[in-house]
TrEMBL record:
CDD domains: AdoMet_MTases. InterPro entries: Methyltransf_11, SAM-dependent_MTases_sf. SUPFAM superfamilies: S-adenosyl-L-methionine-dependent methyltransferases (SSF53335). It comes from Candidatus Methanoperedens nitratireducens. One of its GO terms (molecular function) is S-adenosylmethionine-dependent methyltransferase activity. This is Methyltransferase type 11 domain-containing protein. Pfam families: Methyltransf_11.
Length: 245
């Protein structure tokens, strides 16, 4: 990793929340993994950044694909428009997307499904706006993670009880993920675990040396992501789905 790359990561890091080191890094690395999948798809794609927030993700997506962002919050849409001048952003509801059918090549939806009371309704709406053989990139907190399994074996509270807020209304394991997406017209094409550090190895947050550079955390994550048990049983699973029509 060159000095220029290190500086780039630090510059991006300053755009993320700094109140919690691991939370800020977690969202940064999650974005990088999303971009990894988008780059693999190739071509000049039209991407919907669903629940786009302040436009941090759209700002990176627009470097490789065309992007439209949608979010429920007018405040966040205003911020996104200020951040990404060349992007298109609008208010909207995931349950009733304001787009014609078969419009998008790909949809990106990050850490949202666990907040939804009716996830199948949202997934079917995403299916509707995706073109044939379109893609959905989505990261989902998984109950099938190794830390939770160890805690349950020891009779302790699962890890997600420590980390999630009250807005999380559902929890998923691999079986339920496969089932709900199949029922909604999607097929898993690829999946990988990560970012790992915040949840899979939370004790790393106790060490002060890592706070100097997010780049150090990324190096650790890249090593962890290649370990088979982490890839399959990481606390966060990032999926590439293809729509089935």
């Amino acid at each position: 990793m060159t000095k220029n790359e290190l500086n780039k990561y630090e510059e991006i890091a300053r755009q993320f929340p700094q109140s919690n080191l691991l939370e800020g890094y977690h969202h940064f690395r999650r974005l990088e993994l999303t971009l990894y999948f988008l780059k693999k798809l190739g071509g000049d794609l039209l991407v919907l950044d669903a629940a786009c927030g302040d436009g941090i993700q759209a700002e990176r997506i627009i470097d490789i694909h065309r992007v439209i962002g949608i979010d429920l919050s007018p405040t966040r849409i205003k911020r996104a428009k200020n951040r990404v001048k060349e992007g298109t952003f609008m208010n909207g509801n995931l349950y009733n997307l304001p787009f014609k059918s078969n419009k998008f090549d790909a949809v990106v939806l990050g850490e949202i499904i666990e907040h939804l009371h009716e996830p199948k309704e949202v997934l079917k709406e995403i299916n509707r706006i995706l073109r044939r053989n379109g893609y959905l990139i989505m990261d989902i907190p998984s109950r099938s993670n190794i830390v939770d399994m160890i805690l349950r074996f020891l009779g302790k509270n699962p890890m997600w009880g420590l980390y999630v807020d009250k807005s999380h209304v559902a929890f998923y394991d691999m079986h339920s993920i496969e089932s709900i997406f199949k029922d909604s017209g999607f097929k898993i094409i690829d999946a990988r675990g990560g970012p790992c550090i915040r949840y899979d190895l939370p004790l790393l947050g106790m060490f002060t040396w890592q706070k100097k550079k997010w780049a150090i955390l990324k190096i650790i994550d890249m090593i962890l992501e290649r370990i088979p048990v982490i890839k399959k049983y990481g606390a966060i699973q990032i999926f590439l789905f293809r729509v089935v029509k």
